[in-house]
Design brief:
There is one protein chain. Helices cover 16% and strands 41% of the residues. By secondary structure, the chain is α+β, with helices and mostly antiparallel strands. The strands form two sheets. It has a seven-stranded antiparallel sheet with strand order 6-7-5-4-3-9-10, with no helix packed on it. The chain has a four-stranded antiparallel sheet with strand order 2-1-11-8. Strand 4 and strand 5 form a beta hairpin. The chain is elongated and about 80 Å long.
Length: 171
Amino acid sequence: MATHYIKAAVVMVAALMAIGMILPIKPTIVIHAQPIHCQLPDTFSLKWRHSVEKQYWQEVYQLHYPDLILTKTYLQTFGAGTPNLGEPTRAPDGYLGQLVNLPMDELNWLVSHNMQGEIVMGDAVEANPAIMPIHQMIEDRSVVNVRPEKLTVWQYITLPRCKAMTNGTNG
């Protein structure tokens, strides 16, 4: 009789494991850019050098599934056409910060070597954030797609973390 219960328990555990491997359960942020495919942390920043002003701009995003929320922007200077929509907020040294709170379903970011695009793991106001120099990792003028996705347990375990591709220092 006990053998019957053990077999049933083994079958149930195997079924639950199989379901966990195929059903999406874990919301995360995923980068799709040839050859990069990895998971971002729930908060990350895009950083680039503006083509006209030659100053750095940063945008901070946070996962709020099914959206990405643009929560803040950090600009070194304000020039003609610079958005001025939000309340001031704390910013990294040398930057002015604004609160934004704009939901987006995905980002398609055109990255060139000239604009020196980087992905900051977390918020740039954190001490020594890890930086992913994406402009050095992909072809010039490539599109980087960033979007929230629900991953299966298997995908969550096997898809690399973007932080493993960083230089580990602030920029």
